């Protein structure tokens, strides 16, 4: 399946696409795995400069395009419950030493025949094995508001969603307490391919 994010400046355009292997897909949880070396799509500046290398003051205002790349390093397990305005990502060091959970605040995913679509909300939360947490990317969150990519009302909703996620973290509820850090992919799984029409319009949308 494809896990895609729409461009924050143009909701009709996708700028991130990652082919994933479905681990679990139930009424309560979608769990998907992105293997190392997965071919994916990411945004870059028009001249090819990686987005993170651009100064924050102009990072969201300079023209962009998409490029194909590979996911380097260890893989990522993504967990998402229907309706939650975030997904939880698990990262490992090499050798399967668990590193952290990462709460990616985002629009609740919309399902379609090829996967799920969302829109990133800039602000994130990092959760460590000792259960302490910290806000991440608050500078990008503030810059996105200054650049008109997010209204004050939407920013307040995102911050509220983050506080709701933190309440689950402090209470140590699922998925943090569900043991996913001990999960491992089946070594026989093939790495999914990136289709040529990765940015096609979604069909049969559902929640």
Automatic annotation (TrEMBL):
It comes from the Bacteria. Residues 53-173 form the DUF402 domain. One of its GO terms (molecular function) is hydrolase activity. Keywords: Hydrolase. It holds the Pfam family DUF402. The keyword Hydrolase applies. The keyword DNA damage does not apply. PANTHER family: PTHR39159, UPF0374 PROTEIN YGAC. This is DUF402 domain-containing protein.
């Amino acid at each position: 399946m494809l896990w895609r994010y729409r461009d924050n400046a143009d909701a009709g355009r996708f700028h991130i696409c990652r082919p994933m292997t479905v681990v679990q897909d139930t009424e309560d949880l979608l769990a998907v795995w992105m293997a190392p070396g997965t071919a994916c799509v990411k945004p870059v500046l028009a001249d090819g400069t990686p987005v993170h290398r651009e100064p924050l003051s102009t990072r969201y205002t300079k023209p962009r395009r998409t490029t194909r790349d590979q996911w380097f390093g260890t893989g990522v397990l993504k967990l998402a419950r229907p309706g939650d305005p975030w997904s939880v990502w698990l990262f490992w060091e090499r050798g399967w030493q668990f590193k952290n959970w990462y709460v990616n605040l985002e629009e609740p995913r919309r399902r379609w025949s090829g996967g799920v679509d969302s829109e990133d909300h800039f602000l994130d939360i990092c959760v460590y094995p000792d259960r302490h947490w910290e806000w991440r990317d608050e500078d990008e969150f503030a810059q996105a508001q200054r650049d008109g990519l997010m209204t004050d009302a939407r920013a307040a909703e995102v911050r509220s969603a983050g506080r709701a996620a933190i309440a689950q973290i402090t209470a140590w509820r699922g998925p943090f307490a569900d043991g996913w850090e001990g999960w491992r992919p089946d070594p026989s799984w093939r790495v999914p391919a990136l289709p040529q029409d990765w940015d096609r319009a979604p069909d049969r949308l559902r929640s």
